Amino acid sequence: MQRIYEPADLLEAQLLLGMLQQRGFTVRLLGADLLGAMGELPAMGLLGLMVPDEDARLARQLIDEYLSATPEPGEPSNLLPVEGPWMA
Q: Which helix (H) or strand (E) holds 62?
């Protein structure tokens, strides 16, 4: 197993974990259980995504592509509408 990425937070970790699993990768998330010890442990490097050695290159490539992606023209840049009945 190789550590292929250190997510910034648990949300990013879960998002990338799900993306890789949907593509058929066996992925392990390390350090999620250590987040409760923040303040006691160094804040950086707690989380890590690991895949089998033979999948590491392709998994890194997919993560890089995902992180560098930008929305297509005309796609909303967020999930929440700017206006709605709650704005009145």
A: helix 56-68
Backbone φ and ψ for 51, nearest 5 degrees, come out as -135, 165
**Residue 12 Cα to chain centre, angstroms:** 3
Q: Over the stretch 26-78, which tens digit does the pLDDT of each residue have?
A: 999 998 765 554 554 455 667 899 999 999 999 999 999 998 887 777 666 65
Nearest to residue 34, comparing CAs of 24, 21, 25, 47? Answer: 47
Element (H, E) at 64: helix 56-68
Q: 10 Å Cβ neighbour count for 76?
A: 9
- Taking the model in full, what pTM does it have? 0.69
Q: Cα–Cα distance between 66 and 13 in angstroms, integer?
A: 13
Cβ contacts of 63 within 8 Å, gap of 6 or more: 4, 5, 16, 19, 20, 49
